[in-house]
Design brief:
With 286 residues, the chain is of the alpha+beta class. Helices cover 35% and strands 23% of the residues. The chain has 7 helices and 9 strands, in the order H-H-H-E-E-H-H-H-E-E-H-E-E-E-E-E. Helix 1 packs across helix 3, helix 3 packs across helix 4 and helix 3 crosses helix 5. The protein is elongated, with a radius of gyration of 20 Å. 39% of the residues are buried.
């Protein structure tokens, strides 16, 4: 594995959709247009209400569809707007950027999921109006919606927590490939200690539970949990494919930080892409 020279955490920037992401998004838009006809804020709010009335709160597909509907409305309202892929709290997520704000996307799918199922439908119209104001307001090259450093988090983690998260990211890049992996990292007297998670590495709640138990048993003051997500879908057939390592790290009982690092796999092997990015705050992982 080779890593980029830039190892300092930086702000995430949007990237173009991969062919696989584009195909999945187009299919999602087609479903939305069949669900909501005509597509307007009122009918999107009505869809949200119907989903709430259905009571299937563990099913997130409806909330994703509302996010896709909102993004489609933004594209309809701003001829310069387009879909991109962004790092959000749950990993890569569709975002919308405009010619005026190419580096500052709106994340309608992630934002819809974050409101499900607790918010009433009256959040939707103000969100659309605010998003349009955001997209149409010109911004500079340094205009980003993401938190640029751990110091800007609501409760900044200790520098040792950020260092542990970076250690986990680097280990994840060393393990990156075409398989999902999950592991945890603890600080130790002789250096960080890591262990692979048992069971399904894609079951994040189970991985967190296992990692927390390991950290408590070891009497560790802090913990990092990492997931290596390989490329998915039809993008696997491309010459270069992108995956990511996502890490949650915190001190015991304190909010922490979520960091990520994209990697690419291709004929030349696996390589880190750019540098680590700070996504935002995490709940306590220990």
């Amino acid at each position: 594995m080779t890593a980029g020279a830039d190892t300092a955490p930086r702000v995430a920037t949007p990237r173009n959709l991969t062919p696989g992401e584009q195909a999945r998004l187009e299919a999602a838009v087609d479903r939305v247009l069949r669900l909501v006809d005509p597509l307007d804020p009122l009918r999107v709010a009505e869809l949200w209400d119907r989903l709430l009335e259905g009571g299937q709160y563990d099913d997130l597909e409806g909330a994703r569809s509302v996010g896709v509907a909102i993004g489609t409305l933004l594209l309809d309202a701003d001829p310069t707007a387009r879909w991109v892929s962004c790092l959000g709290p749950r990993g890569w997520t569709p975002g919308v950027v405009s010619e005026a704000r190419p580096f500052s996307p709106v994340l309608p799918v992630a934002d819809s999921l974050s409101r499900w199922p607790g918010a009433p439908a009256d959040w939707i119209e103000p969100y659309i109006n605010g998003s349009l104001d955001h997209l149409l307001n010109p911004g500079g090259l340094d205009d980003h919606p993401w938190i640029p450093s751990t110091d800007d988090l609501p409760q900044p983690p200790a520098s040792q927590v950020a260092d542990l998260a970076t250690t986990a990211l680097n280990l994840g890049l060393a393990l990156a490939g075409d398989e999902s992996r999950a592991f945890a990292v603890l600080p130790g007297a002789g250096g960080p200690m890591s262990a692979p998670a048992p069971g399904d590495p894609t079951d994040r709640d189970a991985v967190r539970t296992w990692a927390r138990a390991w950290g408590v048993q070891a009497g560790a003051p802090m913990l990092a949990v990492a997931w290596v997500e390989p490329p998915r879908g039809s993008a696997r057939h491309a010459l270069v494919r992108a995956g990511s390592v996502v890490v949650e790290a915190s001190e015991a009982g304190r909010p922490g930080v979520v960091m990520a690092h994209e990697f690419t796999t291709g004929r030349g092997g696996t390589a880190g892409s750019g540098g680590p990015v700070i996504i935002g705050a995490s709940n306590p992982v220990l």
